[in-house]
Amino acid sequence: MTKDDEGNDVGALAAQPVAYWTWAASQALLRHIRGAMARADISQPQWWTLNHLDASAEGLTRAEVCARLDAFLGELGLDAMEHAVDSLLHRGWLTADGVGRLTLTDAGREAKERTKVLVAQLRSEIHEGITDEEYAAALTVVQRMIRNVGGTATPR
Prior knowledge:
Layout: H1 10-14, H2 18-39, H3 44-54, H4 62-73, H5 78-91, E1 94-96, E2 102-104, H6 106-127, H7 132-148
Antiparallel strand pairs: 1-2
Helix pairs in contact: 2-6, 3-4, 3-6, 4-5
């Protein structure tokens, strides 16, 4: 019997269903991230919106924001992005010009910077005890599995 670095039976682990474990990981990670963001009074779609608008010098329209973030939405759906934009406008973190181009306000940039600190803390928590090499190897294997079944995944 071959053991991994943590003493687990490699054969037993290799026989386990990857779909279950990737689903379980996704659920646990999303619950952790979304909970922490909710406690900071921001949602993932709001965070994504702030990031993409900050990276665009001339701003983006609602349609452009939604198109850029479509791959992130998953079960959230397009309504989540519409709600994110509306709530950010209401908070004064975004402004829209006469043709509907959205840009960050000073308050929006400050919120983005606060959330960036939170996201860095979350990444540290999630990656605790995992080397960059282990993390990269895990992603490489998952990406290969996706390709093996004809799927596509674009690195973010």
